[in-house]
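Appendix B, example 12.
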Amino acid sequence: MNIGNHGGSCHHSCCLRVQNLSVQIGSDTILKDIDLHVHCGEMVALIGPNGAGKSTLLKTVLGQQEYSGIISFSVPGQRTRRPKIGYVPQSPAFDPGDPVTVMDLFACCMSKRPAFLGPSKAMRQKVLDCLDRVHGEDLIDKRVGTLSGGELQRVLLALALEPLPNVLILDEPLSGVDVEGMSALMDMLDEIRQRYDLSILMTTHDFAMLPKYADQVVLIDHTVIISGTPLHVLGSDAFYQVFHRKGGLL
């Protein structure tokens, strides 16, 4: 097991590389011989059937799961062995009757000041600046439990972007978001990765958006079945065999 800097073909740009990664939980092999390479500024989508190990792979990259193999990072201008990683989990459930606002949520995550004292002016401005990154300043005083799926994803994304990461990891960010909201969210992710030159690694079951936004698609079913451009993967025999589909998507 090794986490370190990779100095190969990405010498002048940050990247994430996974090599020969396997995860064993008890007697079950969850992942086997995973190879993955995410360049700085790329959006890479992990797809696969339920139970294929996609979320486990994200947790492994985050350092939350033991594994064998190599996870290596290269971050230009930094001596740290790990980059800054932002993470957005699958949408948690919030009680609509809970009085906690978006401002309260940020204050609990970013400040040591007791929430019952209310935020300082400086903290409120900082939260507004964070929400500005996702065009969500108007959400600051809304109760978290009343947010739509798309609004909640914006809030969680704003939290993950403070401080600005080198790699942004999202687990099913389109889950619970309506079709119109999906396009808006993907447009925003595309804007963010270009503006801040960060990498995005995400899982999704929504394939229609991938040809427009993803640089690379990786189909896994406990191991990497096929990877490449969206058109290459979504149009492959392997894709149709895994998802039992006939005919084309595109």
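The longest strand covers residues 28-39. Helices lie at 54-61, 102-110, 121-132, 149-160, 179-196, 210-213, 230-234, 237-243.
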